[in-house]
Amino acid sequence: MDKNNDGKIKEILNNEKEILTEVKEEKKVSLNNSGMGNYILSGSILIAALLIAGAVVYSNGAKVSPTANVADNTAKAANNKSVLQVKSDDIVLGQSSAPVTIVLYSDPSCPFCAAADGSNVVAGQDSTGKDIHIISDYLQKSDPSWQAPVPNIISNYVNSGKVRLVFRYFPGHGSGEQAMKVLYCANEQGKFWQLSDAIFQNQSDVADLNKVKALASGIGADVSKINDCLASGKYDYKIKQDTDSGTQAGVNGTPAFFINGTLLSGAQPFSQFQQAIDALLQNK
Predict the structure, then answer these.
(1) 3-state class of 243 per DSSP?
(2) How many Å apart are CA 238 and CA 256, to the nearest integer?
(3) Which of 175, 205, 212, 235 is the most buried (most CB within 10 A)?
(4) DSSP letter at 34?
């Protein structure tokens, strides 16, 4: 890695430390200290540091089984039933009759959320000119079979009516709130999922409201309507409602997925979601 990119990643590292400290203090969001942090946002600081050192390894040593994480959290599912119940103002993709509901807590500014969405966050180029994808490169090196969960869940389960996917905001990174409000407003025009993909694919622009609006325009949204929507403050409550429900459900990092109420934390490989979903479908 050349010195220029070394400096860029050090800057990312310092920015994330400041952002996560602020979020932890203001939102009372505790970071995930378990081995599952390999796949969640709280591991991004470690990843940047490891890339600076020229190595990519699992945080906290050994990899923890995602399947074990599901089993450990099954007992909490009943307690989460009311908190995770789908509301009329939730962002939902899929049929209401789907036997499996996945509630996803995410943040437009969260690099691990972008990876889970199938987007590669480019941090720069190495000395050979090859793009450095901090998150996806790390996850695929840790697990060569790793595939992004969200697009595969949609293509394999949502589109066939087996799963409905609910998107809620949680401040896992700290700079995505304004972009999230734009997303809520874009949803009024049926553009939520398109804009969400565009933001994740251009995540370096997420803290610049004008650039986020430009992305909205690029996917065909009426920006004048979005401006009116933002000015009204009509979705301020939704930011708080989503965040509060995530806190009550036990979210401590993003992305966080609740599969019929059971937590699967982080940008886990699609195969882990497939296993959990298929098990639920077999019991229906």
Answers:
(1) helix
(2) 18
(3) 212
(4) S
pLDDT category at 17 given cuts 50, 70, 90 is very low
- Per-residue DSSP letters for 261-278? TEEEESS--HHHHHHHHH
Strands 100-106 and 163-169: parallel
Kind plus residue range of the DSSP H or E element containing 22 = helix 3-27
pTM of the model: 0.75
Is 13 within 8 Å of 24 (Cβ atoms)?
A: no
**Cα 150 to the chain's mean position, in Å?**
9
Average pLDDT over residues 45-60: 30
Cα–Cα distance between 22 and 29 in angstroms, integer?
Answer: 10
How many helices (H) and strands (E) would you count in the chain?
A: 13, 7
Q: How far apart are CA 160 and CA 99, in angstroms?
A: 11
Q: What is the spatial distance between Cα 95 and Cα 101, in angstroms, rounded to a whole number?
A: 10
Alpha-carbon distance of 61 to 275, in angstroms, equals 25
CA 156 to centroid of chain Cα atoms: 19
- Cα(184)–Cα(238) distance, rounded to whole angstroms? 9
Question: What domains does the chain contain, in order, with CATH numbers?
Answer: 3-282 (3.40.30.10)
pLDDT above 50 (res 145): yes
| 56 backbone dihedrals φ, ψ, rounded to 5° | -125, 115
**pLDDT of res. 81:** 76
Distance CA(154)–CA(146), nearest Å, equals 16
